[in-house]
Amino acid sequence: MHKTWNKAFHKRKLWRSVSKPGKLVYYMQPLIEHLFDTWMQPLPFPTLLKFIYSWVLIFFIMIPMLYPLLVLLSYYGIFQYAAEEHFGLKTPEKWDLLGAAARLWHFEVTNRKYLLFVSMYIDRYRVVLTAISSTVDYMRMALWFVFN
To answer: Within 13 Å and on the Cβ side, how many CA atoms surround 106?
Structure first.
């Protein structure tokens, strides 16, 4: 007689009847618990670093999905280059990957007023983000002192 209560859920017979979203939720539980534990760390670990850590972790989780897309785009770029250079074929404007990459590579803001405007907006949002994260840290510290 097997003791099924000691087996992990993904090794039981019931596992075959679980839907794909259910399996995804089952396998994502350790990650969510890890992120929750990270966000509940005590105060010396600032909120801004928690945001950065969370986004880096999410990026590394997304790599298996992003890598095939990157490979597909690079092969399409090679195909487009060969088609334009050797066969004289022109790709439509919507499908012009090399032209879009060249425009993005050579982009610059020529108007000095707009350049100052953009840098001021970046500074403004950097200050707002820092203020919000500091506020969250100080609120957590105050609540920690009140309830402990």
So the answer is: 5
